[in-house]
């Protein structure tokens, strides 16, 4: 069985039983520590870079695509709206990166 690392949020403080579950399945939980915590240790660069990308993506989905605002009446409507917003973000990122040779995260810039 392979070893996996799960990147968690700063606000997430793991409990003992959860760590036992992760240890039994060969999964390590890597949380970035707060600056004021005892035994503060800086997180590895690759994990910080990944977390930043994830946080940027979530922020963009909430701010520009208003993913939290869904006035739907059914689960199918909810699913359709969420998938359409994620698809729109993906298309913009694709065009930025591969077609226009711009930064992947520049989703507020107009397309020519």
Q: What is the topology?
A:
Layout: E1 4-8, H1 16-24, E2 27-31, H2 45-63, H3 75-99
Parallel strand pairs: 1-2
Quick take:
With 112 residues, the protein is mostly helical. The protein has helices at residues 16-24, 45-63, 75-99; strands spanning 4-8, 27-31.
Overview of the molecule:
This protein has helices at residues 16-24, 45-63, 75-99; strands spanning 4-8, 27-31. The chain is built from three helices and two strands; from the N terminus they run E-H-E-H-H. It is mainly alpha-helical and 112 residues long. It starts with a strand and ends in a 13-residue tail after the last helix. It folds into two domains: 1-43, no CATH class; 52-112, no CATH class. A two-stranded parallel sheet has the order 1-2. Strand 1 (4-8), helix 1 and strand 2 (27-31) form a beta-alpha-beta unit.
Salient structural properties:
112 residues; mainly alpha; 2 domains
Poorly predicted runs = none
Please give the number of β-strands: 2
- The span between the termini is 49 Å
Strand adjacency order, main sheet: 1-2
Instruction: List the total number of helices.
Output: 3
Strand content: 5-15%
């Amino acid at each position: 069985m392979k070893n996996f690392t799960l990147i968690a949020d700063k606000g997430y403080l793991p409990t003992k039983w959860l760590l036992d579950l992760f240890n039994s399945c060969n999964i390590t939980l890597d949380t970035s520590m707060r600056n004021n915590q005892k035994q503060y240790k800086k997180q590895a660069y690759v994990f910080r870079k990944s977390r930043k990308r994830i946080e940027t993506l979530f922020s963009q989905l909430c701010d520009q695509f208003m993913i939290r605002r869904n006035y739907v009446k059914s689960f199918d409507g909810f699913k359709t709206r969420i998938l359409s917003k994620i698809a729109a973000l993906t298309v913009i990122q694709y065009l930025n990166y591969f077609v226009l040779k711009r930064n992947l995260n520049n989703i507020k810039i107009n397309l020519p």
